[in-house]
Design a protein that fits this description.
Blueprint (H helix, E strand, L loop, with lengths): L1 H26 L2 E2 H4 L5 E8 L11 E3 L2 H11 L3 E7 L10 E8 L8 E4 L2 E4 L2 E5 L6 H11 L1 E2 L5
Antiparallel strand pairs: 1-4, 2-3, 2-5, 3-9, 4-8, 5-6, 6-7, 7-8
Length: 153
């Protein structure tokens, strides 16, 4: 009986340890480019905010590999830390960037928003720990490198 209790207690402790490490990893500071899994991005769709129509499709895209790499390099300058579930009220509606990433393996991210000090990614909200984001650079970059999204896709 004592041996059985020891094994049960060992399993419970192991499960709590695994959970604790996973939770710590989830909430630790990360590089923004790593969080977005930028190594396999094939296309980036975007609209600049404020959004006037929540149902509007993206009207701009980045498909050129060199432009995508330049944007990834820019994003890699920022660190983020998960602060919880999406619970967002915009403080800078004119300084936001909304995007959707399309990956080589056919994954597509949910729309994400970068605002000066906040990133919304999937269902989570992150604090940009070394912000604010250089929105002026981002806006100029997208204006120079973005392409119109064709109606056929």
């Amino acid at each position: 009986m004592k041996k059985k209790n020891f094994y049960i207690l060992s399993i419970v402790i192991f499960i709590f340890l695994i959970y604790g490490v996973a939770r710590w990893n989830d909430f630790r500071e990360k590089n923004l480019a790593d969080l977005l899994d930028t190594s396999k991005i094939e296309k980036i769709y975007y609209n600049q905010l404020p959004i006037k129509d929540e149902m509007a499709a993206y009207n701009r895209q980045l498909t050129d590999g060199q432009s995508i790499q330049e944007l990834i390099t820019f994003l890699s300058l920022y660190k983020v830390k998960k602060i919880g579930d999406r619970d967002f009220v915009s403080e800078y509606p004119d300084e936001q960037f909304q995007f959707q990433l399309e990956y080589e393996d056919d994954r597509v991210t949910m729309p994400s928003i970068i605002e000066r000090d906040v990133l919304l990614n999937d269902m989570y909200q992150y604090e940009i720990t070394n912000g604010p984001v250089d929105f002026e650079w981002l806006e100029e970059f997208l204006e120079r490198n973005g392409e119109e999204v064709s109606i056929n896709g």
